[in-house]
Specification:
Blueprint (H helix, E strand, L loop, with lengths): L2 E6 L4 H12 L3 E5 L3 H14 L4 E3 L7 H13 L3 E7 L14 H22 L9 E6 L12 H21 L4 E6 L8 H9 L1 H6 L4 H13 L4 E2 L3 H10 L4 H26 L1
Parallel strand pairs: 1-2, 1-4, 2-3, 4-5, 5-6, 6-7
Helix pairs in contact: 1-8, 4-5
Amino acid sequence: MKSYVCITGAAGGLGKAFATECASRGWNLYLTDLSADSLAAVAGGLARMYAVDIRTYPCDLTDPEARQAFWEQVREQRICFHFLVNVAGLDFEGPFFERSNDELRKIMRLNIEATVEMTRSSLGFNAPDRHYQIVNVCSLAAFYPMPVKAVYAASKRFLLDFSLALNEELKPRGVSVLALCPAGLPTTVACIEKINAQGWMGRVTTMNVGQVATRTIDLALQRRAIYIPGILNQVLRILGGFFPATLIASLVGRRWQDTRRRSILPVQRAV
């Protein structure tokens, strides 16, 4: 029976980087994302470059019925996995009061609910003769209370603690879980604009997406529990542990206020 790597959010920048890295290692892929057309484009490009079997299944992971249909399809196809990469995630950046209940609900449903359920369901399809690796894409934001990104950061904190606990719990079952905690990643035009708006600090903490994907897979195979890409980001994480959470929240809040002002000013000048 063929074994596959399941990647959620596979049509996004980081998801495509993981798909490319896994295909280059000769691993078969099972890709899911919201858009069927985007998935087809990713799969078609990779199929032309690598001799691996690539299957796609478009799915709205915020919908419990859609997730159930996804796993029913996997069962019907008699698929098994040796790797799961939970990339799919969502954020509506901005002040909490300006976010709608629907937006906040979508963040929690995708970042938390969907990741937990996809992880739990995948364990019923892991290849019996192989060690099973899981990567959950968290964030450097998981380590800090973050004004303007309060629900997003809290959801990533949940994923970090969930991943670390699960990694320990599932060791006897031949399963390891790695929490990937990157800072900025230039995956979309919007992400690049936000990174540039943060000035020098945003640029120096940003990492190359392809390099992050490669290193993440390497460390997952070594059964590491956590990966923070970048020496500076690792230092920031260590330094953050010496200060009270209230002070961190205050400093982060001031930084985001400055960032938002820099993002808005060019638009105001044009008007």
